[in-house]
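Troubleshooting: if your tokenizer reports a length mismatch, compare against these two reference records.
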Amino acid sequence: MDFPTTLIPGVLEQRYKRFLADVRLEDGSITTVHCPNPGAMMGLNTPGFRCWISDSGNPKRKLRHTLELIEAVGPSGPVMVGINTGTPNKLAEEAILSGVVPQLAGYETLRREVKYGENSRIDILLQNEGKPPCYVEVKNVHLVRKGRLHEFPDCKTTRGAKHLRELAAQVGLGNRAVMLYIIQREDGDTFSLARDLDPDYAKAFEEARDGGVEAYAIRCQISTTSILATTPIPIVV
């Protein structure tokens, strides 16, 4: 995924009210931008971190700019992290279509945001005549606390546990269901669950896998011009 416009560098002043952030630009001015991430952003919201924002080009939009990247300090040193939770669905689509996730190859159609379950929408629905449909739920990952281990979630996510139960229900109906974790940073080699941050999600994950839900993790390459989902990494639980 290429960014459609050149990102603007700055420094994070503060992130607040979940969806707002103040960024100091290179000319010293401070602008309030949209922060497209409802999570805790653990380790990513420290004032003084370098960041990059996109410009919608729409002066009528309430917040014209969007926070896209943050250069955080991970266990291995500085690392660029994609924080936009609207990006992983596109990255997942590109990864599937390009064969980065071989387990999801062989389907004729790919549709996004299809209604299913308990008033929900599946991120990606793969279909092919003669085989069960495949329901793919995509989650954004940006947490690293120790070593080279990526973790999810970074805070309690009741909605995430609900999605796992709905995936398991699809398996019960004879369909295929997949949990796909898109990791928007590249300083880790394995993926696991942050059980201490949300034990209920970890339990729901285990129950879903026992019920036949598949799980895969894909690490991304990050730059100020593009984000690409390129590398499958093992899940350790």
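Reference record two:
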Amino acid sequence: MPRKVSLDELNRLSVEDFKQAPKNPYCLILDNVRSLNNVGSVFRTADAFRAEKIYLCGITGTPPHRDITKTALGATESVDWEYAPDIVTLVDQLKQEGWTVAAIEQAEGSVSLQNFLPDANKKTAFVFGNEVAGVNDAVIQKADLVLEIPQYGTKHSLNIAVSAGIICWDFLAKLNKTFT
């Protein structure tokens, strides 16, 4: 009969060890995300999947804030993050640095996530937009690709934190990333 593993048995990294550990070749960009709970959840996901960094843009809240801290469960201390006031400037900068920019959105010409094959030799920046308006149109125009998460129900959107979890897991699974 299986048993639940204790927290001690999980051998989780300390914050200091996490900071020194190799990161995966991607970052998450949150643009004008209103919900601080969503921001905190994305921090936690970025920690779980060892994202290189999170960029918080526009009106997106930044740590320290109790609502972010409540859902991040300490990930604001482990995951590197930066505030960037203007997402278009940030996207231009990342593209100049050689990053592939992927907007997560439903748009004409989007690539279904199941058909997305990441380039293991390039870093990827995933852009998540506002909970109502989505990804900024100017970012969609500048992005190297637009990724769409297939959905089969009556709703046509997912919570941003759920979307980030799906994108991070899918990206690492396709790169066949495993850690010890």
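Descriptive notes for reference record two:
- DSSP finds seven helices and seven strands in the chain.
- The mean pLDDT is 93.
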